[in-house]
Design brief:
The protein is of the alpha+beta class. Helices cover 33% and strands 26% of the residues. The strands form 2 sheets. It has a 4-stranded antiparallel sheet with strand order 1-8-3-6.
């Protein structure tokens, strides 16, 4: 679990404070849709309390939960990279309190302060790497072979 300081620990205190001033306190009720796959990614959140699920629409099936974001973690990274479109759905699993950031304001801050921008990109890249590893494991659990194909020499191998 990462706090804003932990998530952005590579930032200098004054950079962290500059970013924090752009955040607005928001709340989401359990079950509230926070963002939708395919929609414009124009903001992101750092959860102060509660949890949110990231899910994926699979044709012919109900939505599949890919990952859970918890207190202190970053919710949303599609805002940082063109084409700025959400790749998953985000929904409040419990009551959520978060700091919400306007993506364009943060990207502008990064252009004005390249050192802050570089530190932020590294922090978000770390989150992306962690999420991709967890998503891969989750997708293998959901869609991979459910039982190993145990074969012996007697089977012709």
């Amino acid at each position: 679990m990462q706090s804003m300081k932990g998530l952005l620990g590579g930032l200098e205190p004054e950079q962290r404070e500059r970013l924090r001033t752009l955040g607005t306190e928001v709340a989401f009720a359990p079950g509230a849709e926070i963002f939708e796959e395919g929609a414009r990614a124009d903001r992101f959140w750092i959860l102060r309390s509660g949890s949110a699920v990231l899910d994926l629409h699979v044709p012919g099936r109900r939505r599949v939960v890919i990952d859970t974001v918890r207190q202190g973690e970053l919710l949303g990274w599609s805002w940082l990279f063109p084409p700025y479109v959400w790749t998953l759905n985000g929904e409040a699993a419990t009551s959520v309190r978060a700091l919400e950031f306007d993506a364009e304001e943060v990207r502008q801050l990064c252009r004005e302060d390249p050192a802050l921008g570089q530190a932020l990109v590294w922090a978000v890249a770390s989150v992306i790497g962690d999420r991709l590893r967890r998503s891969r494991s989750r997708l293998l659990d959901l869609f991979g072979p459910y039982a190993p194909q145990d074969r012996t020499e007697e089977d012709g191998d």
